[in-house]
Write a structure and sequence with these properties.
The complex is a heterodimer of chains A (403) and B (305).
Chain A (H helix, E strand, L loop, with lengths): L4 H10 L7 E4 L2 H11 L3 E5 L12 E4 L2 H11 L12 E5 L3 E12 L4 E7 L6 H7 L4 E5 L8 H9 L5 H20 L2 E12 L4 E3 L2 E5 L8 H7 L14 H11 L5 E7 L4 E6 L1 H13 L6 E6 L4 H12 L6 E6 L7 H14 L4 H4 E5 L5 H10 L11 H11 L6
Parallel strand pairs in A: 12-14, 14-15
Antiparallel strand pairs in A: 1-4, 2-3, 2-4, 5-6, 5-8, 6-7, 8-9, 8-10, 11-13
Helix pairs in contact in A: 2-3, 5-6, 8-10, 9-14, 10-11, 11-13
Chain B lengths: L9 E5 L4 H12 L3 E6 L7 E2 L2 E4 L2 H8 L4 E4 L3 H13 L4 E4 L6 H14 L2 E3 L5 E4 L3 E3 L6 H7 L2 E8 L2 H13 L4 E6 L10 H9 L6 E6 L5 H12 L5 E5 L26 H10 L3 E3 L5 H11 L5
Parallel strand pairs in B: 1-2, 1-5, 2-4, 5-6, 6-7, 10-11, 10-12, 12-13, 13-14
Antiparallel strand pairs in B: 3-4, 8-9, 8-11
Helix pairs in contact in B: 3-4, 7-8, 8-9
Classes of the chains: A alpha+beta (403), B alpha/beta (305).
């Protein structure tokens, strides 16, 4: 989950990292007041989660409070990659002497956190890595040993920095690494990390991401930053359909029947589990089908849970039929899923035989499951029909492009 | 021979009195597993299907020496401690079933395991099976279902998805291709054992003649495998199935497992497929193509001996 720049900077400040004076504005008047309080040239920055706001013109400069108000009016309507700004951050404009780059992330291959540091900040770091590899250092550090200055010092010194700059940058990089560990982050980045005319350092922009698994452990911090429990902070905000899916899944702790993602097609998918859903979604699209949604069932959800999910999907406008498909199951019971989807169809006022295009879940308790489906006249198949073939049958029934 | 486990492998179950763990014990015992004890703090003296429950791993080790492995099925906030306990008591193979463990804690477990010479499978996995020999973890479910899907043979299987491990094994078995060892390696961004880290074991295993893998968007595991296969000039033909191709167009969205997200180019299925194919790995578009691709690759091998 991503943090906005202003949240990232609040987090930086809590961890003793240098950030500039600034405040949020949602009206031109607030922007003017913020600039007046700062008393000098300011930068007006759109607060969005997606990148590329500079290119979109959503970052502007102003020398007076009145100009700040005008720039607010210019920045506020700009949608960056379709995203509306949450607010605009008005910050003092700094006299920058040099720009650095500091970042901490996970190296999945080495299975350790890694410090990335460059003396060529402000530009795309991928470009530095490709064009100027000597200007980008990579320093791994242990998650078991206490984090000490050494790792940070080595990261900075590795790009040829010495003297006072090395001694001023080391504690900043160290704090960034500590913040990364303490807050269960997957990314803690300062770019640019500016050296000002007076020799001090300042985080001009910040990019922080936290792993979703840590939401529980970091509850207090998230509350303090004002991040609501329903904010998924993915690439786009959740739709009402997705919110309802999450609510139904959370209402019952037995198994999973959720992780619903909305698409605009006509074939509802009641699919699982993690890998099976990815495989089946691809298969439906390969057959020319248009999924109405993505979802995952697994971990043997209760009848009620699958029933609610089925009703939700069948109730989505434009959904003609549903396909109920999974890989060979061993923990989830076929009969329990069968009961759930049939009841979900009946709840939605639909005849299961007509609403369910195909039921392909082989595995534990399949005989019992198939008996139930037979009774309701639902087309089902066992493992002799592949996931790909089952998806093709479902698409064909809906009158899609077919295989 | 299989890799990592065999008929003789002894293991314990940490968190043995939990609902899922009780099922797992039943299913593993039915398949012939040698479960020599279980741990749930405060529940010493009980039995789960005849398996004695202890308070500490140490109590089991003092009685009979350290078992070969442990299956850890404790809630996420206790998992790191349970894994540390297993490692520090000399257990060398640890299967972590639990999901939703923060990444920093996974990294800590993996780091300690590396220091002590232990191997971790998972987290967020269903464990592993040597068909006809033994299994460790929930892989395949009840013994009858497991026997239906998994048959003994010469194909090694590795998968980032537990359920798809069984789907692939079932497809292979139906096509007359048995398996040497099948490993659900886990769906998280950091896992104890990656494809490339397990390849040397399959490479050294006389029973294994080819490898089938299930892969997904996100991470560098497939690139690492591709590099290993070409650098080591592996004797084993590898066939990979790549799921989640639709995710290439949906950057920053998470689907499936925790480790499955497309952020940069390296995370896309298109890039992974390119890298694997360049290393001589055959990439299947459908699960049912895997048996034929394996047969073709096995037939193409230079004849030796």
């Amino acid at each position: 989950m991503r943090f906005y720049e202003y949240e990232s900077k609040a987090l930086f400040a809590r961890h003793g990292l240098p950030t500039g004076a600034g405040s949020l504005a949602q009206t031109a008047e607030q922007a003017r007041a913020a600039a007046a309080q700062i008393g000098g040239p300011v930068v007006v920055k759109s607060q969005v989660l997606s990148g590329g706001r500079m290119k979109a013109g959503a970052v502007q400069f102003a020398d007076t409070p009145e100009a700040a108000a005008r720039q607010f009016e210019a920045v506020w309507p700009i949608r960056v990659n379709g995203e509306q700004p949450r607010a605009v951050l008005v910050e003092a404009k700094s006299a920058v002497a040099h720009e650095f780059f500091a970042s901490v992330t996970w190296d999945g291959r080495r299975k350790l956190p890694v410090l990335l540091f460059s003396d060529m900040g402000g530009i795309d770091i991928e470009e530095v890595a490709a064009q100027h590899p000597a200007h980008l250092s990579r320093t791994h550090f242990s998650t078991l040993l206490p984090l000490t200055e050494r790792s940070a010092k080595e990261a900075v010194a590795a790009v040829g920095i010495s003297g006072g700059d090395l001694n001023r940058l080391t504690p900043i990089v160290l704090r960034l690494a500590q913040l990364f560990l303490d807050c269960d982050l997957t990314l803690a980045e300062i770019n640019p990390l500016a050296k000002l005319a007076d020799g001090s350092f300042l985080a001009l922009d910040g990019h922080v991401e936290m792993e979703a698994e840590a939401r529980g452990a970091q509850q207090a911090l998230l509350a303090e930053l004002g991040i609501g429990e329903d904010e998924t902070r993915q690439a786009r905000p959740p739709t009402d359909f997705e919110r309802e899916g999450a609510r139904l899944n959370a209402a019952d702790h037995r198994g999973v029947a959720g992780n619903v993602v909305e698409f605009d097609g006509d074939l509802g998918l009641v699919i699982g589990a993690g890998g099976g859903s990815l495989t089946l979604f691809d298969a439906v699209r390969r057959h020319g089908g248009r999924p109405a949604n993505y979802c995952e069932i697994g971990g043997n959800p209760s009848v009620r849970k699958t029933r609610n999910l089925t009703r939700l999907i069948l109730g989505k406008p434009g959904v003609g039929k549903i396909a109920v498909m999974m890989n060979v199951v061993s923990n989830t019971r076929v009969d329990i899923v069968a009961r759930g989807v049939i009841l979900g169809c009946l709840d939605a006022g639909r005849d299961p035989a007509e609403a369910i295009a195909i039921f392909r879940i082989p595995g534990s308790w399949e005989e019992e499951g198939f008996r139930i489906l037979e009774k309701y006249g639902v087309e089902f198949c066992d493992r002799s029909v592949s996931m790909f073939e089952a998806a093709g049958r479902a698409v064909a029934k809906l009158g899609g492009a077919g295989a | 021979m299989s890799i990592l486990i065999s008929r003789d492998t002894t293991f314990i179950v940490q968190g043995i009195t939990g609902r899922e763990a009780v099922n797992l014990v039943r299913e593993n015992l039915d398949y012939g597993a040698r479960i020599v004890g279980g741990v749930t703090p405060g529940r010493a003296g009980r039995e789960i299907y005849g398996v004695p429950v202890h308070d500490c791993v140490r109590d089991i080790c003092q009685q009979r020496g350290a078992p070969d492995g442990s299956v850890v099925c404790v809630p996420p906030r206790f998992t790191r401690d349970a894994v540390f306990e297993a490692i520090e008591n000399g257990i060398r193979l640890i299967v972590i079933v639990t999901e939703n463990i923060p990444r920093r804690q996974v990294a800590q477990m993996v780091e300690l395991a590396a220091l002590r010479g232990a191997r971790i499978i998972g987290p967020n996995c269903l464990g592993l099976i040597a068909p006809g020999e033994a299994k460790m973890g929930g892989i395949g479910g009840p013994a009858a279902n497991t026997r239906q899907a998994y048959r003994k043979g010469s194909i090694g299987v590795m998968s980032r998805s537990g359920g798809m491990t069984t789907e692939i094994a079932s497809t292979l078995s139906a096509a007359g291709l048995g398996q040497s060892t099948c490993i659900s390696i886990g769906g998280d961004a950091i896992v104890g054992s990656t494809y490339a880290e397990l390849m040397p074991l399959f490479e050294a295993d006389a029973q294994t003649e080819a490898i089938a893998i299930y892969s997904e968007p996100g991470g560098r595991m497939e690139a690492e495998l591709a590099a290993w296969v070409s650098e080591q000039k592996s004797r084993l033909p590898v066939v990979a199935f790549m799921a989640g191709r639709f995710m290439d167009e949906m950057r920053g969205m998470r689907f499936g497992h925790a480790g499955t997200i497309v952020e940069g180019v390296e995370d896309t299925t298109a890039q992974k497929i390119r890298r694997m194919e360049a290393a001589g790995i055959s990439v299947a578009e459908r699960i049912e193509e895997i048996p034929d691709l394996l047969r073709r690759r096995l037939a193409e091998r230079p004849t030796e001996k």
